[in-house]
Amino acid sequence: MNLPPFHLAFPVHDLAAAREFWGGVMGCTEGRSSEDWCDFDFYGHQIVAHQAPAAVAKVAGAHNEVDGHDVPVPHFGLVLAMQDWRELAERLRGAGVTFEIEPHIRFEGQAGEQATMFFRDPSGNAVEIKAMADPERLFARD
Known about the structure:
Elements: E1 7-12, H1 15-25, E2 29-33, E3 37-42, E4 45-51, H2 53-56, E5 62-66, E6 69-73, E7 76-80, H3 82-94, E8 99-106, E9 114-120, E10 126-132
């Protein structure tokens, strides 16, 4: 599947903390930046951390139940290959990242079986990283 890169801008309370997390912990290469924002290469997609402390304070604390877990809303993330997902989970554990939902397999035995994990960046933005047991079934329904 050849997809165009997506672009996502999100608020952060501290650009230095965002650089440390997204660049250091997540391993995203930094692109263009200014005093108020910074681009990152998020596995080929462009995400932009914008210094906006007032917006960070408004990050929603809502959750929806999905397969027995309280999934934070809103959130953003990626669907990686399974090996890349495992490696990232270990890197995050090694960096001491606190998981909102620990890495695990959900929807076992169903069309949408997937590995998933949820965590937050230093500004509280919820991130989900998942990997499909069968990548061809990303949009499949039972």
